[in-house]
């Protein structure tokens, strides 16, 4: 499993350009379902900047009721909101080359097959952004038939190069068994890598993995720790989960969880996080 860089200096794009560097293009999603719609809806927010993305993600998370046994994943939204958010246009990632930009122009013009023709050779040559965007296209049926296995293939290639959002989405797909055999331990590994690179939604997902004992030993202390970490970085759903969990914990457990979260945050002082 790849190891993420441990500090902001190793990521020249952290800061205002972080969202453009790591987030996907806007997807014009009209009829997607389930987690696929949630991923596409969240993808749409890259063009609006971190503040707009945070506001929309807050709306998305509040729009979807929680299942009895497992809370919503990172984006908690239905296809209707995904369609609404998908109307915006994608802003090119910082530093994208001319070839990548040509794919962007085709995509924004609705020429998804043209975008695919540009991005696929780039992806095969190892371009991490092209790999990630191919994963999204197969995941959300843009210019290709939906193919979870192909989506996983390209997400994995991007994730193995350290693409933080690809790592989080790969964790989601392992958690749900989309395109791969369901594996909670693998989901935990990818969520952890994404969280270590500053993805607050991945940290929130880790909280639920510990809360439910999925892929890790059941632990309210560690669940609270990860909810605290995610909430500290702006994840409103995690803040609510943390407050709900507090009522089930002793003062000693709360102190332990708080100390673990403080120690972790001190070791991962990212200037910008993906909410």
Q: Would you mind describing this structure in some detail?
A:
The protein has a domain at 198-275. α9 runs antiparallel to α10 and α11 packs antiparallel against α12. By secondary structure, the chain is mostly helical. It is built from 14 helices and no strands. Helix content is 61%, strand content 0%.
User: How many strands, what sense, and barrel or not for the largest sheet?
Assistant: none
Number of helices: 14
Low-confidence stretches: 1-33, 42-96
Instruction: Output mean pLDDT.
Output: 73
**Cα-atom radius of gyration:** 18 Å
* Percent strand: under 5%
**Looking at the structure, what is the overall shape?**
elongated
Helix content: 55-70%
Record field, number of beta strands:
0
Helix and strand composition category: mainly alpha
Give the helices and strands as they follow along the chain: HHHHHHHHHHHHHH
Please give the alpha-carbon distance between the first and last residues.
24 Å
Summed up:
The chain has 14 helices and no strands. It has 275 residues and is an all-alpha fold. It is elongated, with a radius of gyration of 18 Å.
Search tags:
mainly alpha, 275 residues
Layout of secondary structure:
Layout: H1 18-22, H2 34-43, H3 49-63, H4 79-85, H5 98-108, H6 112-124, H7 128-140, H8 148-160, H9 164-176, H10 184-196, H11 200-212, H12 220-232, H13 236-246, H14 251-267
């Amino acid at each position: 499993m790849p190891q993420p860089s441990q500090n902001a200096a190793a990521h020249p794009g952290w800061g205002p350009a972080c969202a453009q560097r790591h987030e996907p293009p806007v997807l014009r999603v009209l009829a997607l379902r389930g987690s696929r719609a949630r991923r596409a809806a969240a993808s749409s927010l890259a063009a609006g900047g971190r503040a707009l993305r945070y506001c929309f993600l807050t709306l998305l998370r509040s729009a979807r009721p929680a299942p009895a046994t497992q809370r919503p994943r990172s984006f908690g939204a239905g296809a209707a909101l995904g369609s609404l958010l998908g109307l915006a246009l994608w802003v090119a990632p910082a530093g994208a080359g001319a070839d990548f930009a040509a794919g962007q122009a085709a995509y924004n013009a609705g020429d998804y097959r043209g975008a695919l023709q540009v991005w696929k050779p780039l992806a095969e040559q190892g371009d991490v952004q092209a790999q990630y965007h191919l994963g999204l296209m197969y995941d959300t049926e843009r210019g290709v038939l939906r193919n979870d296995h192909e989506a996983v293939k390209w997400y994995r290639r991007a994730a193995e190069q350290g693409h933080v959002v690809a790592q989080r989405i790969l964790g989601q797909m392992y958690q749900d068994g989309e395109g791969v055999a369901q594996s909670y331990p693998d989901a935990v590994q990818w969520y952890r890598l994404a969280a270590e690179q500053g993805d607050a939604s991945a940290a929130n997902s880790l909280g639920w993995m510990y809360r439910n004992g999925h892929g890790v030993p059941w632990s309210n202390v560690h669940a609270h720790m990860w909810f605290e970490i995610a909430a500290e970085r702006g994840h409103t759903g995690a803040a609510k989960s943390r407050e709900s969990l507090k009522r089930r914990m002793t003062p000693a457990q709360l102190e332990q969880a708080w100390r673990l979260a403080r120690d972790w945050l001190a070791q991962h002082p990212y200037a910008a996080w993906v909410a």
